[in-house]
Amino acid sequence: MRELTYYVAVTLDGFIAGPNGEFDFFLAEGDHRDAINARFNQTIPTQFSEALGIPTNGELFDTVLMGWNTYAVGLPAMPSPYRHLRQVVFTSRATDPTEGVEFVDGDPVATVRALKAEDGKGIWLCGGGALAAALADEIDRLVLKINPVLIGDGIPLFAGRGYAPKALERTATTAFESGVVLAEYARA
Question: Which domain covers residue 109, as residue numbers?
């Protein structure tokens, strides 16, 4: 069975973006960049990976899941941001068909369970926080790029989940000189 991995950058105070979707405070430069990009090259938007000469082939993922706000970050310039992956966007908005993107207006849990039952590689949950909260019980792996910054307010890692303790097991931690920490967890 395929695994769902929530792989995302996060601040020390638990936000994946600012109140208006800002993310320019995350460290783009530093010793963490090349190491993380080498391992998670499939999570780089196709347009950027092509420009940088970074291959997007890999064994981790063949599918990416996004909420509308995460998907909309690249619009209108990148209507199909991860052309090298199957792209599933959860939205209740009426959307025009976009080549390579599946828009789903339905239960994310049922959709993820159906995806997990299919043959293939892993499924990457790109964001956002509300979608992650809805899928919290389906997440098999949590990979956090913890950035050494506090922002005080914004979109939480799990937005609106409410009080629902869930234990995870730490599987790896890599600290970089830049201050970024790659922390990896699996279902306990």
Answer: 4-155
